[in-house]
Design goal:
Blueprint (H helix, E strand, L loop, with lengths): L4 H9 L2 E6 L9 E7 L2 E7 L12 H4 L1 H5 L9 E3 L8 E3 L2 H19 L2
Antiparallel strand pairs: 1-2, 2-3, 4-5
């Protein structure tokens, strides 16, 4: 069954709380309660039912909603074009970025070992 555009719009108009997993790869595997308004996360808090953290979120996730929508957040791979610290970068494709990273790792392993 597929939702119609009107049904989807109505879904985005509702303020709701969604149970999600923390996006970080920590051993705690925290559970987060995210408040969603008009399809956008507007707040996060720890889930008090999580057996380990019992509702506490770390500083990395506690303000997740402000960082995820920050206009300065990187959304694409970038390659430094100027000296380190100059802040000069150019956008590159995901394929270029992965190829460059693989080449660097291959060179490091060849020189220093695994």
């Amino acid at each position: 069954m597929t939702a119609t555009p009107v049904e989807l719009q109505s879904f985005h108009d509702v303020t709701r709380t969604v149970r999600v997993a923390c996006p970080h790869d920590c051993p705690d595997t925290c559970q987060v309660l995210a408040t969603v308004e008009e399809g956008k996360v507007t707040g996060v808090r720890g889930d008090p039912e999580h057996p380990f953290t019992r509702g506490v979120l770390c500083a990395k996730v506690n303000d997740f909603e402000t960082r995820v929508y920050d206009p300065t957040r990187l959304l694409h791979p970038m390659r430094r074009t100027g000296p380190k610290g100059s802040g000069e970068f150019e956008r590159i494709s995901w394929d270029e970025a992965i190829s460059e990273i693989c080449s660097r790792f291959t060179a490091i392993v060849a020189e220093y070992g695994g």
